[in-house]
Amino acid sequence: MSRFFAAGYDSESGSSSEEDLLTSSSEEELSSSEEEQSLESDSEFDDADDSSEDDGPSALGPAYFLKKAFLKTDASDSDSDDEGRKVVKSSKEKLMDEMRDCIALIDAAKAAGDWVKIVADFDKLGRALTKAQQQSIATPAFYVEALAALDDAIAAQTDVKKMSASESRAYNTVRQRVKKQVREFQARVDAFRAGGDAEEAAPVVRAVAASSGIFATLQTIAETRGKKNVDRFQQIQELEDLAQLAKTPFEQISVYLMMIPIRFDVSANAAYMSLEQWMAAEADINALFDVLETNAATVALLETAEATDNLETEPLPNAAGVKEILGSAGGFVERLDDELARSLQSIDSHAAEYSDRLKDEARVYALLVRAQLYAEATARTSEQLARLVLRRLDHIYYKPVSLIAAAEAQAWSGIPEAQNSTVAPRVADADTLVDALCSLLYTQNSVFRKRAMLSHIYYYAKNNQYYKARDMFLLSHLQATIHTSEPQVQVLFNRALVQLGLCAFRAGLIAESQQVLQEIATSPRSKELLGQGTAKFSQTTTAADKQRLLPYHMHTNLELLEAAFMTGSMLLEIPQIAAQASDYKRKTASKSFRRSLEFYDRQYFTGPPENTRDHVLHAAKALQAGDWKKAHEFLCAIKIWNLFPDAEELKAMMRTKLQVEGLRTYVFTFRTLYSKLSIAHLAAVFELSSEEVCAVVSKMVFNDEIAATLSQQTDSIVFQGRELTKLQEMTLTLTEKIGQLSERNERLAAGGHQAQSAFQKGKNYTPAGDKSRRQVV
C-alpha cells in the first residue's frame, strides 16, 4: 500500500488493512537521515502527549505509522530513547569485530571437530586480514593468538585416518594454510608461546607483513579473475594502491602483470575500451618498461621463463645473475594496439572524436619501438621480435614518407640516445626503415613473409616507385597461392594490387593500370575485397569478421579507384571503337566501360555530369568527336583528383594522354575520307609538335593499325589501299556468322539422323542436348 493512503488510516478499515500497513512499514529500511528526522518527530510528539491524549492516532500525523515505535507498548516507551541510539564505529573497529567473529566461529567449529567449517571461516578471516593490511592496520595480537591456538589444535589431532573424505581434505587444507601463516608471523607466534605478548615482535615483521599482504592480495585477485559478479574497478583500485606500496622490482612487476590485464578485462564485453582506461593502461605499460629498463641487469620479463605455482616465489637468478619472470611486455603493447583499432572501428569516422582518437596512434607506435628495443635485448626466440616488428610495419607501410619521418622522430624522442636498434637504426630514412623491417620478417614463417612482402609492395607503390613494386609482385608469385591464405592476408593482397594500379596510373602507364585495377574495380564486392565493409546481404557476419575490417584512415578511396579505372578505360576504349571501322572483329579493353557508354548513347536526354562516372562518360563523348580540350575540362572537373599529392602533375599527364589518344581517334575516324593528311594540321589541332605527331602515326603504322606511309616531301600521311566501308564491314560480319550457323546446323543434322536411325532399330538411345537438337533439325 502506498504511504499516501497509509496516512489516512481509519479504525474502521479492519484488521487486515492494519496488518498490511504494519508489515510494509516494518519491512522498509529507512536511510539514516530519515531515522534522525523520525527521532526528532518522536520527541515532539512525546512533548505534546499530555495535551493531546484523546486526539487518537490521527493527531500524531502520517509519519507515526511508518515508525517502528508504533508497535511499542506504553511499558516500552520509557526505554525508546536508549534503544534508538546507535553506536557509530570506524572501519577499523568494524574490521576488528569481523575478525573476532571469525575467530569465535573457528573456536566453536574446533570444539565440534568440524574442519569443513573451519576452512570456510579461516578463509573469511584471511580476507579480513588482507583488508586490514591494505588499510595499513597492524596485524592484531588476537589474530596471532588464534593462529597459535589453531596450530596447536592441528598438532593435537590424532584420529585423522578415521575422518571422512571431505573432513580429511578440509583438515589438510587448514594445516597447509595455517603452516604458511605461522611461518609469516613466526616471531610473534614464538613470543606468544614463550609467555610474552604477541605485540612485542610486531615492529620487526611489519615489512614482511606488508610484502606478504601484496602477494596475498594478488593471489585473491587472481583467484577471482574471470568469475561473475566481481567488481573489476575495485580490483584495479586495490592494485593501484599496491603499486604505490611495492618496493622491490619483483613486487612492482608482479603488480603490473596483474593490473594491466584486468584493465583490458573491464572492456571485454564492451564495443571498445574507454579512453580513460586505455590511457591508464598505456601509462601502466610505460611504468612497467621503466621498471624493466632500470633493473635490466637483475630482472628480465620473458615469454619463455619458467612458471611458478606461487605468486610470491621469486625466481632464482640464472648464470648471468638475472631473474627471469614469466610475462610478455610486448603482448601488452599488442593488446593496447588492438583496443585502439577497435575504438577506431566503432567511432564515427566523420566525427571530431575520430580525429582526436587517431592522435593516440603515435603513443602506440612509440610503445612498439620501445618494446622492440627490449625484445632485441632479452628475447631468446626470433618470433617474439618478429611480432613486434610486424606490428610496427603495419603502422607505417600505408603512409607517405613525410608521415613516417614524423612518427619516427616522435617515437625516438622519448628514448635515451644510448639506446639504438640493431634491426632499424635510429637515423634511418623511410626506405631504409621499411627495407630493414621487411628483411627481418622475410626470415620468419610463411605468414610473416607474405605480409612483409605485400606491405613492402604497398609502400613502394604508395610512394611512386612503380617498377620496384611491380618486380617484387611478379617475383613473389603470391597470386598463385593467395587463395589459400588467411582473410587478412588476402585483403592486404588486394590493397597492394589496387595501390599498384593507382601508382601505374599516376606514372602515365594507362594500359598497365587498367589491367591491374579491372578485377577489383568492376567487382560488386570491392568493399569486402579491400577490407572496408562486409557483404551487403550476408546473414552470417560475425563479430570476428567485423574486427577484421580496417579503420577508416586506412581505407582506399573507392571513388578515386573508380575515377582512375574509368579514365584509363576511356583512353583505351575510344581509339579502339574508332578503329573498328576497318576491323569487324571487335576488340574490347573494358566491357563494363563499353556497356556504360552504350547505355549513355541510348539516353534521349543527358543532363550535366553529377558524379565521377558522368564526368568520364561526357569526356569520352567529347573525345569521340575529336574535342580533346572539352574532354580535359570534364576530367579536371572531377574533384577527387585532389586527393593525390601531385594533383597538378596528374592533370598535366591526362592532358598529354588526351592529346595523343585524340589524335589516334581522329586518324581512325577520318582515314576513309582522306587520301592524304597534313602533319602540320594535326599538330595544330592537337597542340603537339610535328615530331610527336610523326611518332604517334609511325607507331600506328608499325602495329598495322592503319595502312599508310609518312611522306617527308609533302610532310603528310599518305593512306594506301582501300579501307573497308561500313557496308563492307557489316557484309563481312554477316558472312562470317552465316558460315558459323551453317556449319553448326550440319553437325546437328548429322547427329539427329543418327538418333532417328537408332530409334527406328528399337534401341534405347537418347541423344545429348536433345531439346535444342530437335528444334534445329
UniProtKB/TrEMBL annotation:
Species lineage: Eukaryota, Fungi, Dikarya, Ascomycota, Saccharomycotina
HAMAP family of this UniProt entry? eIF3c (MF_03002)
A single Gene Ontology CC annotation of this entry is: eukaryotic 43S preinitiation complex
One biological process term in Gene Ontology? formation of cytoplasmic translation initiation complex
List the gene name.
NIP1
Spell out the protein name for this chain.
Answer: Eukaryotic translation initiation factor 3 subunit C
- Short name of one Pfam family for this protein? PCI
Database matches in PANTHER family:
EUKARYOTIC TRANSLATION INITATION FACTOR 3, SUBUNIT 8 EIF3S8 -RELATED (PTHR13937), EUKARYOTIC TRANSLATION INITIATION FACTOR 3 SUBUNIT C-RELATED (PTHR13937:SF0)
- Mainly localized where? cytoplasm
